[in-house]
Each structure stands twice: as structure tokens, then as C-alpha cells.
Amino acid sequence: QSLVSSSKWLQCYGLKRNKLSLSQILSQIGFQRRKDYVTTLGKPVASRYADGLFPQYERAQDGSVYNLTAKKELILHLVDCLMEAIELYKQRMEWLTSDSRQIFGVIQERCIVIVLDFGTAAPAEFDLCRDALSMVLVEQVIQIARFNLIWAAQDLVKWQQESAPVSEHTVKAAVMWLWKLDHMTAVSHTNSAEALLEAMGDEAVSS
Length: 207
Fold this sequence. Notes:
Blueprint: H1 6-13, H2 22-29, E1 30-32, E2 35-38, E3 43-46, E4 56-58, E5 65-68, H3 72-96, H4 101-104, E6 111-116, H5 123-139, E7 146-152, E8 156-158, E9 164-165, H6 168-179, H7 191-200
Parallel strand pairs: 6-7
Antiparallel strand pairs: 1-5, 2-3, 4-5, 7-8, 7-9
């Protein structure tokens, strides 16, 4: 799946976009019982001529009543459409909460710099961090335009002097560089901010 925000995804696959929201469905399968102001009575009065003629549905949100006129075939078709939408939503949720997206979210920028700050992580935690970073490089960074890595160790270490174009070769090289980092030099209490400033100084990085 493409690296798009959920709001953009909903613009394409959401219920409203596909005319499957409750109000849109009700307008397709019936008509609303209207209230008009009757001057002689001095109050709004609901038309009741369809009472008993059609099945009715009352919306809990606003109390509006709809007379249902659609044939069974149309209702079954809408049920099928809603079931397909539910399945699509499930797939989206599973995708959003799996692999690197579970940790990093969905990367939407075209050019990024990842700042590595491992602090005082134990060797096992250090390797877990590198596993996660390798995953995001292979799954998500491979789909964008440019990237770089900066390690906030005792001395700042850059994978490249400036962000590099994304390709299978550069992603593979970045993963190899990541796994060659020496855990013993990872401790730094002051270089995190410096590394962030260095990342933001790359003219190609938009955010």
C-alpha cells in the first residue's frame, strides 16, 4: 500500500466517498418524514400519510424518521458494499499496525533524515533498535525520494554528508552501515540536539 495518511486514504476509500454513510444510504432507500410549520396550529407538524404504508427507520442521532421504499435487491446490494468496506477498513488497520508502521507510523515526506540516538541502550536493546531501523528502511524509505542517517554518538556520525537518492543499492548500503556501528561509542548526553540541527540543515529535507 502507498505511504499516504489516513485522511487521504479516506478521501478515496471512505464511506462518504463511496456514498455509503448512513445519511447517503437512507436517501437511496427511502425518504424522510418532513415537518412543516402549520400556521393555523402555530407549530411544526410531521406528515404522517405514509405511516403504516412503509417500514420506518428512526435515526438515533437526531430523531429523524425515514420511510423505507427500496426493494430488497437494492438493500442487499448496499449490504454487500458495506461488507466490502468493512473488509477494506480491516486491511488498512492491520497494515497500519504492522511491521515498521507500528513503531514509526507512515512516512509521508519525500526526503527524510533519521537521527539515531541510542542513549545508554544495552547491547540487546541496541540490536532491537537496529532491527526496527532496518525494517523501516526496507519497507518505507525505499518508497520515498531521498534519505540520510545521522548517529548522535560521542561524535556525530553521518552515513552520507547530505541526503542521498533512494535506490535498492543505497538502502542496502545504509542497512549495512547501521549494523557496523559500534555500541561502545553510542553514549552521548549532549549531541542529540546537535544531530537534529544537522538534519534540519539539509536543504533537501522539507521537515
